[in-house]
Amino acid sequence: MNIRETAELWEEQYLSPYASLSRNTRGRDREEEPCDIRPAYQRDRDRILHSKSFRRLKHKTQVFLAPEGDHYRTRLTHTLEVAQIARTISRALRLNEDLTEAIALGHDLGHTPFGHSGERVLNEICQDGFAHYRQSVRVVEVLEKDGMGLNLTWEVRDGILNHRTSGHPSTLEGAVVRFSDKIAYINHDIDDAIRARILKEEELPGEYTDALGCSVRERLNTLIHDIIKTSMGQPKIAMSPGMEEAMQGLRAWMFAHVYTNPVAKAEDGRVAKLITELYDYYYIHLKELPAEYRRLMENGEKRERVVCDYIAGMSDIYAIDRFEELFVPKAWKV
């Protein structure tokens, strides 16, 4: 018996009867020889962590566009925070931590530069529309490794696709990530908004803080404990009704007071201009796309989709650099 098989046996003996066992995966699109050390979901987690799209998350906006300061969240720090919350819940419920972490690390790989502002622009200008959760799946299935994709298991891809609020993950591990994503971004976005002096802790509605807590730390602790307590020994992941109502209420309040706040969104108009100009330019100048994107078109992919892929994969910094290179006049030198 090799190390992987020993780990799979441990899962069968220790994990919850509702956990997703590695040896029971529905598999990959392309069959592969199993690793002798790592179970399938651990292997997926490693592939995501080593991918180029994961590394680019460090220079992609979470909420605040191009913030000045070292402590504002980026898409990468958000992803790591989601993974940590999700692992805490999964470990307590004896679910498959490898599967949970793989989904969490991959859930935002398809996010655009400039966060949801960039996503909205691409959705408007791309003929087939754009949604970051679908693009995250496209990244791992098609775009990574020069068009080969990461060939992840079905369960990981399902969890990535269904992490959105309206999603319905097929595994409990996917459901844990879906909740953890909301818990992370609501509370950490509050922390960033306080840092940006958009709001003060005492301005949060008492009807929500009375239930959830009066600090980021208290709210995280309350919500994580509630999910664990409510879901323990159950074939589903859930919050108690009152707690979920308070969290959703706070989320709605954040949309009204932070996510659409003029300070946080002061650069939205420029973002729309930048992404639209880049899209229009590369739609015409296809030969200037990197070789791996041109190969996608040679293999039958639509021009609109491939140009969208290229722009969505850009970091904030790279998108700004490309725009300046293409559209900002340069000083003439002898």
TrEMBL record:
Cross-referenced PROSITE patterns: HD
InterPro entries named among the record's database cross-references: dGTPase, Diverse_Catalytic_Enzymes, dNTPase_2, HD/PDEase_dom, HD_domain, PHydrolase_assoc_dom
Xref: SMART domains: HDc
Keyword Heme: no
Location of the HD domain: 75-186
The organism's place on the tree of life at top rank: Bacteria
GO MF annotation terms: triphosphoric monoester hydrolase activity
Entry keyword set: Hydrolase
PANTHER family for the chain: BIS(5'-NUCLEOSYL)-TETRAPHOSPHATASE, SYMMETRICAL, SLR1885 PROTEIN
Family membership noted in the UniProt record: Belongs to the dGTPase family. Type 2 subfamily.
Protein name according to UniProt: Deoxyguanosinetriphosphate triphosphohydrolase-like protein
Native source species: Candidatus Lachnoclostridium pullistercoris
